[in-house]
Write a structure and sequence with these properties.
The chain has 176 residues and is of the alpha+beta class. It folds into two domains: 35 residues; 94 residues, K homology (KH) domain (GMP Synthetase, Chain A, domain 3, 2-Layer Sandwich). It is 35% helix and 20% strand. It is built from six helices and five strands, in the order ααβββαβαβαα. β1 and β2 form a beta hairpin. The termini are far apart.
Length: 176
Amino acid sequence: MNVEKPADLASVVAGIGAAVADPQRGKPVFRATGSGGDGVRSEIRIGRHTLVVDEGPALGGAGAGANPVEHALAALLSCQVVTFRLWAAKLGIPLDDIVLDAEGDFDVRGFLGLDDAVRPGFGEVRVRVTLSGPADPQRYRELADAVDTHCPVLDLFRHTTPVTTELVTAPSCQPR
């Protein structure tokens, strides 16, 4: 696996000035492409990375990968790590380590259409963040507040994001 060497976080924070000087430079478009496999398995391609997403046998899968809502929790936690590291550097708060745990309450009745009063997604998500380092606890509270305000995936969980869907039918899907 070819992994690029990360930039120093302080230089990343310093480089944010480019987006301030030219706001268009700070508006990337992220893309992902997916295709179905056996059962309910899917492969999602994001740049040069591939994620395998699957369900357990109870929902028609083979457990070849985490399921979609587990990936959502992973996205939330990984975004929290990035946001904690960047904001710690931006605020000058020393941070040695971050440990996160997340759990989400999911009721399959909404997903399976058995009860329209039940959401098809998480009913509630709880995140536990453990920070360690030499700073005063009040500084870590300041950091956590900044992360709660600026974490992109947390924002996706907390606020409605407009999504449009376009259906395209391939020739093999057309009636004969």
